[in-house]
Amino acid sequence: MWSLQELLPGPVITDGAWGTLLQAGGLGAGDCPDAWNLSHPSFVEGVARAYVGAGSEVILTNTFGGSGLRLAAHGLDHQAIEINEAGARLSRRAAGSQVRVFASMGPSGRMLAMGETTVEELQASFSEQAKALAGEGVDALLLETFADLDELRAAIAAAKETGLPVVASLVFDSGPARDRTMMGVTPEQAAAAVVAAGADVVGANCGNGIDRYIAICRRLRAATDRPIWIKPNAGLPELVGGRPVYRTTPAEFAARAVEVFAAGATFVGGCCGTTPAFIAAIRKALAPGRS
Amino acid sequence: MREAVLTGNAPAAATAARAALAAGVAPIDLVNLAIRPAMDEVGRLYEAGEYFVPELLLAARATKEAFTLIRPLLASKDAPPAARVVLGTVQGDLHDIGKNLVAAMLEGSGFEVIDLGVNVPPDRFIAAIKESQARVVGLSALLTTTMPAMKTTLDVFGTSGLRDRVRVMIGGAPVTQAFADSIGADAYGENAAAAVEITRRLIAT
After folding, report:
1. Which of B49, B95, B118 sits opposite A175 (nearest CB)?
2. pTM of this structure
3. Could you tell me the CATH number of the domain that includes residue A9?
4. How many Å apart are CA A210 and CA A88, to the nearest integer?
5. N or C: less crowded end of chain B, CB within 10 Å?
C-alpha cells in the first residue's frame, strides 16, 4: 500500500493539459473528451505516455468530465463507469510502476446554489466515479477546478470512501484580484474547508496564468501545513485567426514554476494550454538542484 | 425592500412587496423606485468584487419573489409588458453557469427570459426570436474555441434578414470588447450584473 509520504517533501512534477492535446488530435468543440477513452484509447494512452516521457512524476487521467452528472450533458451518463475505468487503465499502463496516477474528477456542471442538483445527487455521482477509478488501481484522487465549497465537500466525502489519498484543488479566478473562486471563496477559506473535510493535499488550478499563482501558493502555504498542489494555465488564451493561442512559453512557465516550488508548492504542473514541452522545461529548470 | 434584496431575503422581499401594495404604492413605482435600484446596487457590489455569485443569486431570487406578486398587477394598460430576452450558449459549447446567472439577473430585474440552453445552433436562435418577438439576444461562450460560433450566429442572423430586428449582446470568460466589435455585436458584457444595464440600454435603442 503506497503512501503520499513517498512523494514528500517534493518537488514533484505533475503533468500538463490533456484537452489541448486531444483537440490537436481532432477532438471537436462540443465533443466529450472523456468518451475518447472508449473511442480513441490509443490516442489517450499516447497523451499519458507523452507526459511520462517528458518527465512527469505524477500523471492524471482523462476523466475530468467523467462524473455521471457531467456526462449526462452528452447523453453518456450510462457509460460513466466504463469511461472512468478505461481512463484509469490507460494512465496506469502508461505510468508503469515508476510514475504515480492521480485520477482527475472535475465538477458536475450543476449549480447547487441554483437548485440544479442536491448534495445527495452530487455525492452519488462522485461516488460512482471515484469507485470506478479506484478499482483500476490509481494512486490518488484529484478533485480539480472546483469553485463551490459545498460541491467540493460532497466530492471529498465520495472520494474518501475509496480510502485513497485525496487532492482538493479549486479555481481562483474571480474578484478584482482574481484570487477568489466564482462563489467568492478565498484560498484561506478553501484550505480550512477542504482540510476539515479530510483532503490530504490542498490545491489550486486553472483560471490564471502562472504569474498570479506565486501569491496564491504563498497564501495556501500560510493557511495549511498540508502539501500544496498548483497547476496554472499557460496564460489566458487569445483568439488569433480563429484559433486560441496561449502566450506563455515553456521556458517562461518553467522559470516561474521554480518560484512556485520555492513559494511552498509540493506538486507543480500545468493546466490549459500547457504541453509535454512545458513539463520537460520544468524538469530542466529543476535539474541543477536535483539528486 | 432594498434591505431584503441586498441580503437576499426572499420572504422579506415578498413581505415588503405586499406591505407596499397594501399601502397603495403603484406596482410600477414599486418596480422602478424600489426593486430596480436595489438590483442595480447588487450589480455594483458584484462588479466591485464585494458580492459574488451566491449573493447575486440570492438577490435575484428575492426580487423574483417580489415580481411573482407584482407581475399580475402590472399586466394592465398602464404598464408595458415585460421585455423579452433570448439567451443561449453558442453551438459547440456546453457551459451554462454564466448564462444562467445572466438569466437570473435579468428575471430579477423584471425581464422575461427565453433560455435556449447550451450548444444552440443559429437556427434555434432564429426560431426563438421569431416566436417571441424578442428584441434582445444574449450569446454566451466559455471556451475560446467556441467564440467563432458567435460570429457565425450573427452572420446567419444577417442572411436570415433579422439582424436589424434584434440587438445582440455577448459575454463569457474569454470574450472581450474587441472581439464584440470585430464581429459586429451590439454590446459586450463583462458579467451578469452588466447584462442588466446593457439590456435596458439596448431595449431603448
Report:
1. B49
2. 0.91
3. 3.20.20.330
4. 28
5. C
